Amino acid sequence: MDLTNFSLIYPSTESQKDHYSGKHVPKIDMFVLEELGMLEILDLKNSELSDFFTTDPAVIQYRTETFEDMLNNEGISKTLSRLIPILSDIMELRRLEADSGDTASYLSSLTEIELYISCIDVLHAGLSPIRGNLRGGAFTTLSDRVTELAESEYYRDLNEKLAELTTRVREIKSVTIGVNLDAQLRPSEAGVLSINPEPFRSGDVLEKILRLNFKNDQYTCIANLVPFGKKQSENQKMALSLAFNSAINEVYKSSLRSWKKIIQTYVLENTDFLLNLMPEIEFLVKSTALLQSLRERGCALTKPVLAPAEERRFEAIELYNPCVAMKVDDEIVSNDMVFDEKATIYVLTGPNRGGKSVITCATGLAQAMAQLGMYVPAKSCTLSPVDGIFTHFPTGADDTIDKGRLGEECARLDEIFRQITGESLVLLDESLSSTGSYEASYIAAEVLAGLSRAHCRCIFSTHLHELAAEIPEINARTVADGGSPIDTLVAGIEEGKRSFKIHRAKPDGKSYARDIAGKYGLTYEEILQKLERNGQ
Fold first, then answer.
1. Domain range spanning residue 396?
2. Which of 42-46, 308-312, 401-405 has the highest mean pLDDT?
3. What's CA 394's distance to the chain center, in Å?
4. Is there a single domain that holds both residue 472 and residue 486?
5. Residue where a domain terminates, one of 270, 292, 314
């Protein structure tokens, strides 16, 4: 079973090659992921999260099955977590060998074999007991290969020989050094005379008396060759250690020479495929930890149903924002979000801090998680892959010196229009908030008309309530020319309190004000009552 190109997140060598060639890779950059909050909850150290997104349905299906196995068998994550530091040690060992140029070090090779065997033992012990519970192809294939390796006669022989050689090396306690002198008693040659299983003893008189042995004591030191004291520099200690290691390598070369071929053709080959999995392992372990944390909090998770890209579907029932769910202890508010034939673009209005940004990000996160192959934070979800996710959220003062805040916002919107297609997802949150409502509403109406003609899916979360009133006019302008319909969503207030529920309805900005005015006793009638009580 050749695992040279084996992957835990790609079902075939062809799909893996396609991904690395740029095929089936959506435009979802790190800036977008940061704005959505995904980097905060899924922080990878050894790779970029943006490297893992795909539009390939076969890859997404393969990964969801992989995550299903990990969620149903918590031992997989524990096994992979134990494997990571061992693989890191192998990588560090190779790095040190490359830096030192000591690529032929037999003792280093011996250490690498030990680490390799540890990898196989950890995987075999972790995956074998759950082999019958596995449903996906990734861990089934890995388990079969590891079992094949661990139970082979060759592997048993490797363990036995390693144990024998390791014992011999670990038994080294001292080295006897011989030095030849010339006629002037200057050192002319030096070398190792023997490798000893016992440490040498001090030549102090008191210690000799305590041992009561003054004759034929070959392990007694009569004078220190190099003082290992506080006055010795680190470079001196390192030089001496390297000299001894080199000597030991030379002594054991005859015993270990036969291992060189094994190391190069068998051990390294089988270790390399595991090293290549390091970024995938980290991605799977951290993603599963996120999903497991959401599940433990009582949050719903669903395996997304994939629709063809050309259908441009997105239908999430009881969708919620996982970033918010990870931070609050209260029950999370969920909402339905559906793009359909009646609308693929929504203008979302509502009160400040009423949940507009939360649901906007939740939509992007659901799409992104699905295209990573992860489960989606919703009760149920059917969606089509998108060829890119584009965000336009409130920004700071970057790039505003030359353009001004409004100019910077327009420049970012212009960049989005240069990239989107009918299979893109666009999320606009409080865009054009840097200018007056009249100017903002005019530009926003133009932007919405353009998005309609692009046929993309979009949520435009805005404080511009008057913009929603223009939707019929915008639809009349664009739908007749083949544009996609635009509809409105409202973040509701119930009994003067923010409910964080999103409704598909026509906005009434006055209703928010009436509710809030009523909550604080500021309706005209209540104000009159207060004035009457004041005698006015």
1. 297-533
2. 308-312
3. 26
4. yes
5. 292
